[in-house]
Specification:
This protein is α/β, with parallel strands linked by helices. Among the domains are: 118 residues; 158 residues, P-loop containing nucleotide triphosphate hydrolases (Rossmann fold), CATH 3.40.50; 73 residues; 74 residues, Arc Repressor Mutant, subunit A. Helix content is 41%, strand content 12%. It has 19 helices and 17 strands. It starts with a helix and ends in a 9-residue tail after the last strand.
């Protein structure tokens, strides 16, 4: 008998295990529900923390943990199951229902505990995401929505370029060619959007070249998109560093790169940005460039069948584009509009600018606009359209803001706050007495200029851009006596100024000083109101009496100047209202003479590295705005009273 019991007892225990388990589901169902909801609450707290971290990193463009998205998706599925469990199972009389709920909640508790353990393995680096890195989320199969810049006559060109960018296409370089203002950059942006949506590349790098090719600036743009810091000063050294980075991050299916070179006027050597003209070094990349010159594209190595022409709009598309911005039921206005569009010769930038200018204008304005453009051809129509739009601005404040935008280099992201300060210093805002109101007035002017297509919105927050054709028109305006200015941001031959620069009429000087070793002596600019100097290295020398004779100077703006020269002469100090020292080398720099600028109202040391603010700054009783952004470790020698708005 003992032998039988010894054999049957283990068998009975094994057979009873499922019974006990299912009895547990039935008896402890209410307890399982309570445990499940408690553990789910704890898991929800972890989920909310991870979601906040995810949102913060997306917002500030920091790396997102590779595990977090799948973990959050798993929690979402668990949560959906939890929501289906009834909360009042304890009051349920159905044994079957209580058993089912107990069994399901027990399984969910196991899933919740597993997800909680997985959370402990999630790690965050919080490293900045390189600007050019494409989002790692799944590719979308949707096509970009059409807008007024998509035209049927260009779809063939667009589709050819899109197919050339696909991985299985042998085309290594693709070029969009066409005259200025025809829409090359717009099509390039559409292609860039498709490449991002379909995740055709791991990195998309973009550099705006412009009329004056600057290899150092191109290298910096590429480095910015890749998240590389280039400390090297010479072009070959910087190219070698980029080349090594590409090699280390390419090959064996690691990363694919799209390099976009926009507005190419002269041949760009890809070796300068660390890429060989042909993919023979293991780097998987393609180049998309836009240019007005097919010959330049050929010199750079683009095959003839990969040079795609972006042509002028056909008549029906031109009329349609105009009508998207201007709607009228007046037959006479419609006829005038049709004539204006015809005179714009199918050039999109001219059509859009003219349409934006005439929107909500009276019939006389339409007639006047037609009379201004009716005798011009495709080669000269764009400047005439911009001139018409400029004269239709009506108020002088907006015109002045528009002209100030021409002081910045080509394709520059123009900070609106800087425009406001220039405007404040030059007193262009009528009956405006505070910085805040000046900012509001400036924003109104900017909005009007964007609406008339004379300015473009920028991808950089707080900035605007100016199309290169519009900027060329503004520089032409500067040649008029009333706006006489010296503006040069690309001419390498700036070691000396010619005699015709030495004139009393100049009101504005805006220069990039990279290639200059010294500024000319005996400068006499008695009517100069704004001086803007950029990118001067340590070799640049100022004459000792540089500011002498600049009695009307109201704004001085230095940007990335190694050794800026501060004004000290009483004559210059009288009218100076704005002093900008942005990203200048002010470490161990004596700024005590600023205390002599007693009429100064706006002072900026942003990103300058200044370590000590002299006590003499307390003399600036009229100071209204002091900008100390990114001036780490700053020591202020003495407290002073001023108005900061």
């Amino acid at each position: 008998m003992d032998v039988v019991n010894a054999i049957l007892k283990p068998v009975a225990d094994i057979l009873m295990e499922p019974v006990k388990k299912h009895l547990g589901y039935l008896i402890s169902s209410a307890q399982h529900v309570r445990d499940m909801r408690r553990k789910m609450g704890e898991l929800d707290s972890l989920r909310h923390a991870e979601e906040d971290h995810l949102d913060r990193n997306i917002r500030t463009r920091l790396e997102v943990s590779s595990q977090v998205r799948s973990w959050l998706e798993e929690i979402e599925k668990i949560d959906e199951k939890v929501k289906t469990v009834p909360s009042d199972v304890g009051a349920c009389c159905s044994l079957k229902t209580r058993h089912t709920v107990g069994r399901e909640t027990f399984k969910l508790i196991v899933e919740i505990e597993s997800a909680t353990r997985k959370h402990s393995f999630i790690t965050w680096t919080d490293q900045p995401i390189p600007l050019g890195k494409v989002d790692t989320m799944k590719a979308t199969t949707s096509t970009p929505s059409s807008d007024h810049d998509d035209f049927e006559s260009r779809e063939k060109t667009f589709n050819q370029a899109r197919k050339a960018l696909e991985p299985n296409n042998t085309s290594h370089m693709i070029a969009l060619c066409g005259m200025g203002g025809v829409g090359k950059t717009t099509m390039m942006q559409r292609l860039k959007k498709v490449a991002k949506e379909k995740r055709m590349f791991n990195y998309i790098v973009e550099a705006v070249i412009g009329e004056k090719t600057d290899p150092i600036a191109i290298q910096q743009a590429v480095a910015d998109y890749l998240g590389i810091e280039l400390k090297e000063s010479t072009k070959p050294a910087r190219a070698d560093k980029l080349r090594e980075w590409f090699k280390a991050n390419s090959g064996e299916g690691k990363n694919k790169f799209l390099v976009i070179l926009d507005d190419v006027w002269q041949s760009v050597d890809l070796e300068d940005v660390g890429l060989s003209p042909f993919p023979n070094q293991g780097v998987d990349f393609k180049v998309l460039l836009t240019s007005r010159d097919e010959h330049v594209c050929t010199v750079m190595g683009v095959e003839v069948n990969s040079i795609l022409n972006v042509g002028l709009l056909i008549e029906a598309e031109a009329q349609s584009l105009f009508q998207q911005f201007v709607e009228t039921s007046d037959p006479e206005l419609q006829k005038i509009g049709d004539d204006i569009v015809t005179k714009c010769c199918g050039l999109p930038i001219a059509i859009k600018t003219m349409a934006c200018t005439l929107r909500n204008k009276r019939k006389d304005a339409w007639k006047d606009a037609l009379s201004r453009v009716e005798h011009y051809d495709i080669r000269s129509i764009a400047p005439k359209v911009f001139e018409t739009s400029y004269h239709n601005l009506q108020d002088e404040e907006t015109k002045s803001v528009f002209l100030m935008c021409g002081l910045f280099p080509e394709d520059f992201d123009i900070p609106t706050e800087e425009l406001m300060r220039y405007g404040w210093g030059l007193k262009i805002f009528d009956r405006v007495y505070t910085i805040r109101k000046a900012r509001n007035r400036l924003n109104t002017c900017i909005e009007r200029l964007v609406q008339t297509n004379l300015l473009l919105e920028s991808d950089d927050v707080g900035c605007v851009k100016m199309h290169d054709l519009v900027r060329a028109f503004v520089l032409g305006m500067f040649s008029e006596v009333e706006h006489a200015s010296i503006v040069n941001h690309g001419n390498s031959n700036m070691h000396g100024w010619t005699e015709n620069h030495m004139t009393d009429s100049y009101k504005t000087i805006s220069l990039t000083c990279e290639s200059m070793s010294e500024l000319p002596r005996d400068l006499k600019f008695p009517n100069l109101t704004i001086l803007k100097l950029m990118h001067g290295d340590k070799s640049l020398r100022f004459p000792q009496d540089f500011y002498e004779g600049m009695e009307k100077l109201q704004v001085i703006s230095y940007h990335k100047m190694r050794y800026p020269l501060l004004p000290s002469s009483p004559q210059c100090s009288t009218n100076l209202r704005v002093l900008h020292l942005h990203e200048c080398s002010l470490w161990m720099f004596d700024c005590s003479c600023i205390g002599n600028l007693t009429n100064l109202e706006v002072l900026s040391f942003a990103n300058s590295g200044i370590e000590r603010i002299p006590s003499a700054i307390g003399n600036l009783k009229k100071l209204r705005q002091l900008d100390l952004r990114d001036c780490g470790g700053l020591c202020i020698e003495q407290y002073w009273k001023c108005i900061c708005i």
